[in-house]
Design goal:
The complex is a heterodimer of chains A (308) and B (339). Chain A has 15 helices and no strands. Mean pLDDT of chain A is 83; it is low at 1-37. By secondary structure, chain A is an all-alpha fold. In chain A, helix 1 packs across helix 2 (25-33) and helix 12 runs antiparallel to helix 15. Chain B has 339 residues and is mainly α. Chain B has helices spanning 4-9, 11-16, 23-31, 37-80, 99-105, 108-139, 146-158, 161-171, 178-185, 197-225, 229-237, 242-270, 274-280, 293-303, 307-338; strands at 83-86, 89-95. Chain B has a two-stranded antiparallel ribbon with strand order 1-2. In chain B, helix 6 (108-139) runs parallel beside helix 10, helix 8 (161-171) packs across helix 10 and helix 8 (161-171) packs parallel to helix 13 (274-280). The chains are: A mainly alpha (308), B mainly alpha (339). At the A-B interface, helix 3, helix 6, helix 7, helix 8 and helix 12 of A face helix 1, helix 2, helix 4, helix 6 and helix 7 of B.
Chain lengths: 308, 339
C-alpha cells in the first residue's frame, strides 16, 4: 500500500467547510491530491445530494402512489404516503378514457420518425461543418446555432394555416415534418466529429478513391456511432415530450401522449387518481429508457455542453 | 497510361465492394475505346465536383427544414399579424395594418402576460441556476456511484411538461394537497396556490425548477471537469480554502458556461407555456395571475380564435427577444471592457 492510498480514505471524512490544520503533512498532501476533480466527497456532500435526489424522485414516486389510490382518498388529508390497490384499475380507466393506446402508438411513430431522420441528417450536416471545407461554412454554422434562438411560437400560426390548407390537420406528418432535423443535433454532431474523426482517416479514404457517400458510409458513420446513439436518445426524449405544436396540430381523436395528457388535465376526467395513472403511463416509456440508457443520456448532455 | 491517383484508386474499393458498384467499373464501361486520358479527366472532374458539392448536399436537409418550417413561417407570422385571420373562417383574411398591434399594446392582458413572463422567468431561472451550480459542485467531488447520482438528478428531465404539471397540480391542491399538508406542520395556513397571485407564479416556477435543475447541473459539471487542476493546486498553495477556490477559480472559469445557461434559460422562460396551461387553464388562473406570453398567444389564437392577434403576439415576443439579446450583448461587452 502506498502513502497516497493511505491518505485517500482520510479525505473521505472531509466536509466542505471543515478547516484543515496547516502544518499537517497528510492534509497538505490531501490538498494536492485533492486539487480539482480529485477531491473526495465528505458525508455532508452525500447528505445534501441525497436530499436533492429525493426531491428529484419524490414527485414521480408519489405519482405512482396516487395512481394506486382512489379519488376520494386523494382528496383527504393527510395525503396517502403508501401504495393502494387500484393501480391497474386506474391505468385501465386512463387508457380507455383518453385513448392512451392510440396516443402511445402515435407518440412512438412520431418520436421514432423524428429520431431516425434527425440523427441521419444531423450527422451529415455535422460532418460537413466539422471536417469539410466549403465557402461560407463558418457563417452557415453560426446561422445554424442562431436558429436555436428563434422560439417555436413564431412559426405556429402559418404552419397551422398551411397544414389546414393541405388537409393535414390532425395527422401525424404535421407533427413530424417541422422537426426532421434540428440545429441542436447538427451542432452536437459537429462538436463530436471535430475531435472523434481524424482528418487523416478521411484523407486516406479519399486517396483510395472513395467518393463522399462512400466516406460517409465507411468512415463517418462508424466514427460517429456513439454520438449518434446519444443524439438518438436525446431526440427521442425531446420528441416524446414536445408539447406546443402537437397540442395545436392534433386533436383528442388522434393525439400524441402529451396531447392526451393535456386532455386529461383540462377537465375531461374529474378523477385525480385516474389522471395520475395517465401521467404515470405517459412517462413510463421514458423512465424505462432512462433506467436502461441513463448513463449515455447523461454523458450526451455533458458532452454537448462542452464547446470547442 | 493512367494518372497516379487512378492507380491508387483502383485496388482499395474493389477489396470491399462488389465489382458492379465501383466507380471504376462505371468508368470502364463508358470510357472504353476513348483515349486513356479521357476517362481520367472525367473521373477527376467528377471527383472535384463531388468534393465541392457534397458539403452543400450534406447541410441542405437542415437548411431546407429550417427554411420551410422556421424562417418562412417566421416571415408569414409577421404578414398574418397585419391581417385579420379568424379561426372560424380561415380563408377570409383581410388587411388591417397595425390594428392587431394597437389592439394588443393597449390591452392590459398583454402587459400582464409580459410582466408574468418576466417575473416567472426570474423566479424560475435564478434559483434553478444557483441550485444547479451547487449540485454540480458537489457532483464534481470524487463520489461513490457518481453515475447513479447524475442519472437520478436528471430523471425529472425525462418527465414531460404535461405529466410533471399534472402531478404538481395535485401536490399544490388547496385541500388535501401534499404541500399545504406539509406546510401545516410548520404552522403555515393552507395557501390557495392556483388562485393567489404570487402563489400561482411560485408553483409554476417550481415545476420549471424541478424539471431543469439537474440538466443545468450536468452542463456546469461538464465545464467544471474541463477546468485544469493546476489552477486549484496553485490556489491551494496560496492558502485558499474550498469556498475561496470555488469563488475565485471555479466561478470565473465557468463564466462562459454560466452565460450560456442564462441565455438558454431565458429563451426557455420566454416560451413558458405548458406549465401554466395545465396548472390553471389557458387564462393562466382565474384572474390571469400566471398567464405568460406563450399562453396568452395560445389563448388568443386557438381558444378565442383570433390568429391575426396571435401572430402579433408572436412577433412582439420576437422583438422583445431581440431587445433582450441586444442588452445582453451590451452588458457582456461592458463587462469584458472593464476587465
Amino acid at each position: 500500500m502506498t502513502t497516497s492510498d493511505l491518505t485517500l480514505p482520510q479525505a473521505d471524512t472531509d466536509t466542505d467547510t471543515e478547516p484543515k490544520p496547516k502544518d499537517d503533512r497528510g492534509s497538505r498532501r490531501r490538498r494536492m491530491v485533492g486539487a480539482g476533480k480529485q477531491l473526495h466527497a465528505g458525508p455532508v456532500t452525500y447528505v445534501v445530494l441525497t436530499v436533492f435526489s429525493l426531491v428529484s424522485l419524490a414527485p414521480l414516486l408519489w405519482t405512482a402512489i396516487a395512481a394506486s389510490r382512489d379519488n376520494t382518498r386523494l382528496a383527504q388529508t393527510p395525503p396517502p404516503l403508501w401504495f393502494g390497490a387500484n393501480l391497474f384499475k386506474n391505468m385501465q380507466a386512463a387508457w380507455d378514457e383518453v385513448g392512451l393506446g392510440t396516443a402511445m402508438l402515435n407518440s412512438t411513430l412520431v418520436a421514432g420518425a423524428i429520431t431516425v431522420s434527425t440523427v441521419l441528417f444531423s450527422t451529415l450536416a455535422g460532418f460537413a461543418f466539422a471536417k469539410l471545407r466549403f465557402r461560407f461554412s463558418s457563417a452557415l454554422l453560426l446561422l445554424t446555432i442562431g436558429t436555436m434562438m428563434i422560439p417555436p411560437q413564431l412559426a405556429v400560426v402559418p404552419l397551422y394555416l398551411w397544414m389546414a390548407d393541405l388537409g393535414w390537420s390532425n395527422q401525424l406528418q404535421t407533427v413530424i415534418l417541422p422537426t426532421l432535423v434540428t440545429a441542436f443535433g447538427t451542432f452536437f454532431m459537429r462538436q463530436y466529429l471535430v475531435q472523434a474523426l481524424p482528418s487523416e482517416l478521411i484523407e486516406a479514404a479519399r486517396v483510395d478513391g472513395a467518393n463522399s457517400l462512400r466516406v460517409v458510409w465507411h468512415v463517418v458513420f462508424p466514427a460517429a456511432r456513439p454520438a449518434m446513439a446519444v443524439l438518438g436518445l436525446l431526440t427521442f426524449v425531446f420528441a416524446w415530450n414536445d408539447f406546443l405544436w402537437p397540442i395545436i396540430a392534433l386533436n383528442q381523436q388522434n393525439p400524441t401522449v402529451q396531447v392526451a395528457l393535456n386532455g386529461l388535465g383540462t377537465g375531461y376526467v374529474p378523477d385525480q387518481a385516474v389522471i395520475m395513472a395517465g401521467a404515470l403511463l405517459g412517462t413510463l416509456p421514458l423512465l424505462i429508457a432512462f433506467l436502461l440508457f441513463g448513463k449515455q443520456i447523461v454523458g450526451g448532455i455533458m458532452n454537448g455542453a462542452i464547446k470547442g | 497510361m493512367t494518372s497516379s491517383k487512378q492507380a491508387l484508386a483502383h485496388p482499395a474499393p474493389s477489396a470491399e465492394t462488389a465489382p458492379g458498384d465501383q466507380p471504376g467499373a462505371v468508368r470502364g464501361a463508358q470510357g472504353r475505346g476513348k483515349p486513356p486520358t479521357g476517362p481520367g479527366s472525367w473521373r477527376s472532374r467528377l471527383y472535384r465536383w463531388d468534393m465541392k458539392a457534397s458539403p452543400y448536399a450534406f447541410i441542405t436537409p437542415f437548411f431546407l427544414v429550417f427554411g420551410a418550417f422556421g424562417l418562412v413561417p417566421l416571415l408569414y407570422t409577421g404578414w398574418y399579424s397585419l391581417h385579420s385571420v379568424q379561426l372560424s373562417s380561415l380563408d377570409n383574411q383581410t388587411w388591417v395594418g397595425l390594428e392587431n398591434y394597437k389592439n394588443l399594446w393597449s390591452s392590459d392582458f398583454f402587459w400582464n402576460a409580459l410582466k408574468n413572463t418576466f417575473t416567472i422567468g426570474l423566479i424560475s431561472t435564478v434559483p434553478q441556476l444557483l441550485l444547479a451550480l451547487g449540485i454540480a459542485h458537489l457532483l464534481n467531488y470524487k463520489l461513490r456511484g457518481s453515475t447513479l447520482w447524475r442519472v437520478v438528478m436528471l430523471t425529472p428531465y425525462a418527465t414531460s411538461v404535461a405529466a410533471a404539471t399534472l402531478v404538481f397540480t395535485l401536490l399544490y391542491s388547496w385541500d388535501g394537497g401534499m404541500i399545504n399538508w406539509l406546510l401545516h406542520f410548520v404552522g403555515v395556513d393552507p395557501i390557495n396556490w392556483r388562485e393567489s397571485d404570487w402563489g400561482g407564479q411560485f408553483a409554476v416556477s417550481s415545476i420549471v425548477i424541478w424539471r431543469w435543475t439537474g440538466y443545468n447541473a450536468l452542463i456546469y459539471l461538464a465545464a467544471m471537469q474541463a477546468i485544469p487542476s493546476d489552477l486549484y493546486e496553485s490556489a491551494a498553495l496560496d492558502g485558499a480554502n474550498r469556498w475561496q477556490q470555488f469563488r475565485h477559480v471555479t466561478i470565473p472559469m465557468l463564466r462562459p458556461t454560466i452565460l450560456f445557461t442564462v441565455v438558454v434559460s431565458t429563451i426557455g422562460a420566454t416560451q413558458l407555456f405548458g406549465e401554466p396551461l395545465l396548472f390553471g387553464g389557458s387564462k393562466g388562473g382565474s384572474e390571469h395571475q400566471y398567464q405568460t406570453l406563450g399562453l396568452y398567444m395560445y389563448d388568443q389564437g386557438w381558444i378565442i380564435g383570433n390568429l391575426g392577434k396571435a401572430s402579433a403576439i408572436a412577433w412582439s415576443m420576437f422583438l422583445i427577444l431581440l431587445i433582450v439579446a441586444a442588452v445582453n450583448m451590451l452588458i457582456n461587452r461592458r463587462l469584458r471592457k472593464s476587465q
